[in-house]
């Protein structure tokens, strides 16, 4: 890819070799890279600009955010670098990384498999990249769609020095730029066996450790690297140069091809990724990495996962590089700074036809009878004020609206819409007990209860599960607008709030109100949801099906609002989310996981460092399977892969529905709806026998689902 002049100057700004003052608006057309870097100071958002009332969040950004201004990212994979003390783990695959006042720690662990969990082993040996004399402070320097830069700084005798780490997922190297300071590299967990200089220019080395690991060390400038022989149970390498400036890159050498892997790492070590941006083009998501120095773009070496390799256009793989083992399977080398993931179709658009199908009269009569007998919940009168559960109740009504429309039941449809409007009028008008406010501190919409108590509303006030929560509201609003039309008085009276709500978690550009793509991790292809919560395993997502629902709802809502570009991007996010769900949550025969964990057939909670057969609310099998299925809408036919269900169904059925097992009717309905995709014995009678359904589900929706299972 040809690099524009704005990209070249941006690269120099990122490297700190020209001042930020040159980063003016004329570079903002560079695919959003400059804006993503937060190089501009934004004025505080004023109340007159917003359709929601403003409140401040009690949780404030700390000094680790440095000079960055809001709106802030709240679910990025690197967020542990700035939460609490900033020393929590992050996982830029294939490495585990953490920061401290000493420097940046990194290492690679072994994958360990158990019955209920597969994970990267803890307490692994690790390097710490530091300097002679130590650092006084650290902060985030910049970030973008795919990368983050962390700078460590000190002043000694009025002289400033620093080390910047360029951190990203998918790089076989850990990269550090030292400025006027001698590097110091300490390895905890093993002594050095040998340090081998590999070239006469002192730019490449191999550190062989007593535990069997071999690490390649590369430098862009000559490096006088010495060994501290007094280190007892560790390895210390240090530079004898007092004023070293340049890049140091380190990479573990894969065990399966050590010789050719080192040569491959050496030949690509001078192509240094320093930024990463995501673009959308047609049915493609494109990753573009900024590379230093200019001219090395085609030489960039990165690592790919299985969900990349299924869709990459014209990939150039590197056979001579060994495999990097991770929780998500083997990472394989790929060369070039542009990754184009091409999808044959987008998921949302592919199911648009389902609600347009004609339902045969005999089956339609069953559904109409059920529809007329449904309890139309008065959401505004319900005592439970939870943002999440209110959303599920609204989405249940939305399903009834869309089914009623398909059946030609206009009177019933309008009655249900009327109840939904009553709630939204109160909700948007601040006449409910738990409305939404615009959080000016971070830049997002948070519930009243969430802002007052960080544990309320599942952590809504600290940005946990926003896509889960607001996806249900967006689906309900779509059902209303799809019926009434965008020009209706009711829609127009709430239009700005409706747009703000869907933009809160799907904003496709940097703006003064919301961060870009609040939850999406573009390298992993899926969303992370745990907000400001800090865990040793870093990011997690439990219900990938609710993530899928959120982007499906956004796609539908943007479409009926006439915001076609945003709708298409939401559909691409939806497609990506489904692909990752099918690779990393749904366990098939060719799974990235190993036995005995694969016998579970599903992941309940996926972390960056661990896949677990459990949920946050219990270990019952019906919870673990069901949470990866709800809610049931047209997009569920794309998410619930029949091949997976067919393979998993005997296990799911035995663990949840076999004689002697007791599960609630709410969960029984969910499990049987999924089973109906492959089990012909499940029919209308199974759902007529149930008198209680999940608060986001209904008998009518189950009957609609059964009909489509037979004919989809």
From TrEMBL:
Pfam families: Glyco_hydro81C, Glyco_hydro_81. Residues 67-345 form the Glycosyl hydrolase family 81 N-terminal domain. It is an enzyme of class 3 (hydrolase). Residues 1-23 form the signal peptide. Keywords: Carbohydrate metabolism, Cell wall biogenesis/degradation, Glycosidase, Hydrolase, Polysaccharide degradation, Signal. It comes from the Eukaryota. GO terms for biological process: cell wall organization; polysaccharide catabolic process. It catalyses: Hydrolysis of (1->3)-beta-D-glucosidic linkages in (1->3)-beta-D-glucans. Residues 373-705 form the Glycosyl hydrolase family 81 C-terminal domain. Coiled coil: none annotated. GO terms for molecular function: endo-1,3(4)-beta-glucanase activity; glucan endo-1,3-beta-D-glucosidase activity. Its EC number is 3.2.1.39. Belongs to the glycosyl hydrolase 81 family. This is glucan endo-1,3-beta-D-glucosidase. It comes from Smittium mucronatum.
């Amino acid at each position: 890819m040809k690099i524009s002049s704005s990209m070249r100057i941006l690269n120099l700004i990122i490297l700190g070799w020209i001042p930020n003052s040159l980063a003016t608006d004329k570079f903002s057309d560079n695919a959003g890279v400059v804006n993503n870097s937060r190089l501009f100071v934004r004025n505080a958002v004023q109340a007159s600009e917003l359709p929601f009332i403003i409140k401040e969040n009690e949780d404030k950004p700390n000094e680790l955010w440095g000079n960055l201004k809001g709106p802030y990212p709240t679910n990025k994979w690197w967020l542990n670098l700035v939460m609490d003390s900033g020393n929590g783990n992050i996982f830029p695959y294939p490495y585990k990384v953490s920061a401290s006042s000493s420097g940046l720690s990194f290492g690679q662990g072994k994958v360990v498999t158990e019955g209920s969990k597969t994970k990267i082993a803890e307490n692994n040996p690790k390097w710490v990249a530091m300097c002679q004399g130590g650092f006084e402070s650290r902060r985030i320097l910049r970030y973008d769609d795919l990368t983050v830069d962390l700078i460590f700084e000190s002043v000694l005798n009025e002289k400033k020095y620093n080390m910047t780490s360029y951190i990203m997922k998918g790089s076989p190297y850990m990269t550090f730029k030292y400025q006027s300071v001698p590097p110091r590299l300490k390895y905890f967990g093993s002594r050095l066996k040998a340090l081998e200089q590999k070239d006469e220019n002192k730019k490449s080395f191999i550190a062989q450790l007593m535990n069997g690991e071999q690490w390649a060390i590369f430098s862009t400038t000559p490096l006088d690297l010495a060994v501290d022989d007094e280190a007892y149970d560790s390895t210390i390498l240090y530079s004898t140069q007092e004023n070293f400036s340049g890049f140091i890159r380190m990479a573990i050498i894969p065990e399966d091809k050590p010789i050719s892997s080192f040569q491959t790492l050496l030949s690509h070590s001078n192509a240094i990724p320093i930024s990463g941006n995501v673009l959308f083009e047609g049915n493609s998501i494109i990753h573009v990495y900024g590379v230093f120095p200019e001219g090395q773009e085609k030489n960039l070496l990165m690592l790919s996962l299985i969900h990349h390799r299924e869709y990459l256009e014209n990939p150039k793989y590197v056979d001579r590089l060994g495999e990097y083992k991770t929780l998500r399977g083997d990472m394989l080398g790929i060369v070039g700074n542009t990754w184009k993931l091409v999808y044959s179709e987008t998921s949302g658009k592919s199911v648009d036809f389902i609600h347009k199908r004609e339902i045969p009269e005999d089956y339609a009569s069953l559904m109409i009878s059920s529809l007329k007998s449904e309890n139309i919940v008065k959401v505004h009168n319900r005592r439970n004020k939870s943002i999440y559960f209110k959303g599920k109740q609204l989405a249940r009504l939305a399903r009834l609206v869309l089914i009623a429309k398909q059946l030609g039941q206009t009177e019933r449809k309008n009655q249900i819409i009327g109840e939904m409007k009553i709630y939204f009028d109160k909700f948007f008008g601040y006449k409910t007990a738990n409305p939404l406010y615009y959080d000016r501190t971070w830049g997002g919409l948070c519930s009243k209860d969430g802002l007052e108590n960080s544990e309320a509303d599942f952590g809504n006030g600290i940005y946990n599960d926003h896509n889960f929560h607001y996806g249900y509201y967006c689906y309900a609003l779509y059902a209303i607008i799809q019926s009434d039309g965008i020009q209706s008085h009711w829609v127009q009276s709430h239009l700005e709030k409706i747009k703000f709500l869907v933009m809160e978690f799907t904003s496709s550009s940097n703006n003064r109100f919301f961060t870009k793509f609040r939850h999406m991790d573009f390298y992993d292809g899926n969303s992370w949801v745990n907000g400001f919560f800090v865990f040793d395993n870093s990011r997690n997502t439990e219900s990938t099906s609710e993530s899928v629902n959120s982007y499906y709802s956004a796609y539908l809502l943007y479409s009926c609002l006439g915001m076609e570009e945003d709708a298409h991007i939401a559909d691409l996010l939806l497609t990506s989310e489904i692909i990752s769900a099918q690779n990393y949550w749904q366990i098939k025969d060719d799974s990235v996981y190993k036995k005995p964990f694969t016998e579970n057939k599903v992941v309940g909670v996926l972390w960056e460092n661990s896949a677990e057969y459990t949920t946050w609310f219990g270990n019952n099998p019906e919870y673990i399977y069901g949470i990866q299925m709800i809610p049931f809408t047209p997009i569920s036919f794309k998410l619930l892969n029949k091949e997976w269900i067919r393979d998993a169904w005997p296990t799911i059925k035995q663990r949840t529905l076999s004689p002697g097992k007791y599960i609630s009717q709410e969960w029984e309905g969910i499990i049987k709806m999924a089973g109906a995709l492959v089990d012909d014995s499940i029919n209308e009678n199974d759902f007529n026998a149930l008198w209680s359904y999940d608060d986001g589900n209904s008998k009518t929706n189950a009957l609609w689902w059964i009909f489509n299972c037979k004919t989809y």
